Amino acid sequence: MSEDTIALIGNPNVGKTVVFNALTGSKGHVANWPGVTVEKKTGKMGNIQITDLPGVYSLTPTAIDDLIARNYILDEKPDLIVDILDATNLERNLYLGLLLKEIGVPIIFVLNMMDLADEKKICIDIEGVSQYLKAPVVPTSAIKNEGIDLLKKMIRDCLKDGLVKTDLIEYPAKLELQIEKVQSYIENEKEITKLNSRFYAIKLLENDAETEKRIMPNNNDENYSSLEKIRGPEFPIEFASARYSYISEIINKNMKKGKLSFDSSAFLDRFFLDKKIGIPIFIIIMWGMFEFTFRVATPFMTLIEVVLGKLGDAIIEGIGESLLSSFIVDGIINGFGSIVIFLPNIFLMFLVLSFLEDSGYLSRAAFVMDRLMYKLGLHGRSFVSMLLGFGCNVPAIMSTRAIESENDRIVTMMANQNMSCGARLPVYILIGGTVWGSAAGGIIFSLYAMGIIIAILVALTFRRILSKGERSPFILELGDYRAPTIKSTITHMWEKGREFVKKAGTIIFTVVIVMWILQVLPLNQADPSESYLYQIGAFFQPFFGPLHFGNIAVIGIIFGFLAKEVVVAAFGLMLGVDEESSELGPKIFENLGNNPVIAYSYLVFVLLYTPCVAVIAAIKRESGSWKWPIISVIYGLLLAYLMAFLVQLIGGVYF
Amino acid sequence: MVLLSELKVGQKAKIRKINSKFSNKLMAMGLVLGAEIKLIRFAPAGDPIEFEIKRYSLSLRKEICQDVEVLLIE
After folding, report:
1. Residues A136-160 pLDDT 10s
2. pLDDT at position B36
């Protein structure tokens, strides 16, 4: 017998992921940014397979998330659906509930956040709601683990005994009559069962294009023309109204709300969304985030450097200088170090972002920033993607999935690579520190600023190219603020950070090992310049001749394409010195002609040239074709070359 | 005839007609005929706009509000 499958579904921000974690015992991702659960996540509760579907408001396939959720339910046919409702926002949450009921699959409703509902003096008659929904309703406070055992028991019982009814909710007679008619037209189609014919009939009446493609692909037969005769523009409105009036009845009969003396969300919004201080607060929060990340990360990074350096020395001392010790120190420890050195930055960045997401501020940031982002050819939601780009462009690209229109998504993806990710920073620090000493901070800041400006120009350009396509509407819920718990913030940070380590870490480690091999081959070199690594640099160097980059600098660029984290490691390998060595900076500078302008143009090049392979893969995955990653590589290279050239031209290198 | 985009801060209205490409999405978010909607505030840059509908907070760009006809209450 095949194992049972259940699917979790619900609006964004209803604590669905917390319920998922409570059921499966696995640590998941809790967020307050609408649409953040974009990956298909599965877990196990005993022998029951649980799939966490994206947070959606409806099943209308205008956004990918809706479509993913809907197709999963229709095609994978889970044995049971668990719809999670926010008890503090029941009215809007029930809309999706009714849509799900229309599909006619077995369903359990979970009334989550009962603790917050209590705080807001919302009183709900669970039994009454259950009668209206014609399905079991389980109250929970997942974050406090309350009601989870009851929910587990309910899930098991329902799967075992088939207790869950698929009773339908009836709409006004006039609509029911039309539904029945359409059902009779489509009954012979291949995908239709007695249960879901009602769903498809309603969708056809609502002019749902996706359903039409599925059910009536050749729209010229008799049934289609009969359908066309009934269909009218009034049906979508009438169905939506019928659902909401049924919901109003549920609410009026089963929910009481006491007077609240103090609404903390409304109070906070008076500051965060204020006309005068809303934007300054936003800027301060962003500035604080970077300040915090870099300040706290620095001592950790120093510590890691020292520890790894000592470890390398100890190994060489222990086993002597040989090919093996070189492999361990320059290959393995170096490769490992290239990943570990970024973890403080990446994890702290994710920590702050998780905190902002969980608190509910990020949707406010989108609200405050939308006007500006819109003018720049982007979307309020692009803002978070751009911000994530400072950490790592991979999660940044992935987060564009929450944006509805394909064009908005593409523009956001194309602009993103110019947001200077954490991996580029060590290159700035190394060269910046060597060349400008204490003034390096300003230089680094100018690079970040240049990245932002270029991102804006790129967004505007792509917006122009794609102008025929429509833009996403801005329809965003501003959910209540919530005090993020330490546990959920840390879990959330860990989830994202771990994903980065897995995805980027494997590539980085492999690249460093490959670089080491290229550096030691052929064996018995009389001079380091005989190594394959050096020769690769020499091969590509002429392309960079006009920019005056030496071949060590060029090697950094070549391998940085695989992972920007390895640029500094490549320098170290080529020069045969530790990554942490103080000789490294001056030697690179020498390779750049000891000229500050060339050094700066090199940093500009590193900032702008092609995203790394992990990002390219992410763009391919998210855009669904090779077209966009190829464009991003080509425009990146051209732009980097041009800008580096301009820097040198203005800096007087050519005269 | 009043458009949703013409409401002032604190004003309440009922949804009368939606004429938008995104009407399905708007209806899912609670903008159905007769639903009560209240303008809470404008974003610092004047757009988007925050509304209260169906007991929660929803923000919409002015552009889309021009596609929604409402009936002022009081």
Report:
1. 999 999 888 899 999 999 999 888 8
2. 94
Residues of B within an 8 Å Cβ radius of A: 18, 20-30, 32-35, 41-48, 50, 54-61, 63-64
Q: At what angle do helices A173-186 and A234-254 cross, to 10 degrees?
A: 130
CB contact under 8 A, B25 and A58: yes
Look at residue A221 in the predicted model and tell me its pLDDT: 73
The contact set of A with B (CB < 8 A) is 57-58, 60, 62, 89, 91-92, 95-96, 206, 236-237, 240-241, 244, 265, 269, 273-276, 278-279, 367-368, 370-372, 374, 380, 470, 473-479
CATH of the domain at A249: 1.10.287.1770
User: What is the total count of domains within chain A?
Assistant: 4
Q: Which residue of B has its CA nearest to A481?
A: B57
Higher-confidence residue: A280 or A225?
A: A280
Q: What is the pLDDT of residues A256-282, one digit of tens each?
A: 988 877 888 999 999 999 989 999 998
User: Within this chain, do residues A335 and A379 fall inside the same structural domain, yes or no?
Assistant: yes
Shared-domain flag, residues A69 and A181: no
8 Å CB contact between A28 and A52: yes
What is the per-residue pLDDT for A152? 94
Closest CB from B30, B35, B59 relative to A476: B59
Instruction: Work out the angle at residue A296's Cα, subtended by the Cα atoms of residues A290 and A298, and round it to the nearest 5 degrees.
Output: 100
Residue B23 pLDDT exceeds 90 = no
| Helix extents (H) in A360-439 | 361-375, 382-389, 393-398, 406-416, 425-436
A406 with A525, same domain: the answer is no
User: Is residue A167 assigned to a domain?
Assistant: no
| Residues of chain A neighbouring B33 (CB-CB closer than 8 A) | 237, 241
The mean pLDDT of A51-78, rounded to a whole number, is: 82
* Assigned architecture for domain B2-72: Roll (2.30)
Give the whole-number percent of chain B exceeding pLDDT 70: 100
The pLDDT of residue B47 is above 70: yes
One domain, residues A98 and A147 = yes
Calpha distance A187→A595 (Å, rounded): 77
Nearest to A244 among B30, B41, B48 (CB): B30
Instruction: State the sign of the Cα–Cα–Cα–Cα dihedral A50, A56, A58, A60.
Output: negative
10 Å CB burial of residue A311 (0-12, 13-18, 19+) is: middle
Residue among A192, A196, A207 at smallest CA distance from A239: A207
The distance of B74 to chain A (nearest Cα, Å) reads 22
The reply to whether A407 and A309 lie within a common domain is yes
Give the structural domain span for A117: 5-161
> In chain B, where are the structural domains located?
2-72
Task: Let me know if residue A364 belongs to a domain.
Answer: yes
Residue A81 lies in a domain: yes
Whether A194 has a pLDDT exceeding 70, the answer reads no
Quote the strand ranges of A252-380, DSSP E: 255-257
Do A236 and A361 fall into the same domain?
A: no
Distance from CA of B14 to the nearest CA of A (A): 13
| ipTM computed for the complex | 0.95
Identify the closest residue of chain A to B53 by CA–CA distance: A92
The mean pLDDT value of chain A amounts to 84
Answer yes or no: do A10 and A139 share one domain: yes
Q: Give residue for tokens 């098991």.
A: A156
Same domain, A326 and A410: yes
Closest approach of chain B CAs to the CA of A95, in angstroms?
Answer: 7
Which tokens sit at A461?
Answer: 């350009």
pLDDT value at residue A28: 47
Q: What is the CA radius of gyration of chain A?
A: 29
For residue B67, list chain A residues with Cβ-Cβ distance below 8 A.
none
Which band of pLDDT confidence, cut at 50, 70 and 90, is reported for residue A35?
very low
Distance of alpha carbon A584 from alpha carbon A576, whole angstroms: 9
Interface with A, mutate which of B55, B58, B63 (most A CBs under 10 A): B55
- Domain assignment present for residue A643? The answer is yes
List CB contacts (< 8 A) between A62 and chain B. 22, 24-25
Of A92, A273, A368, the CB nearest to B54: A92
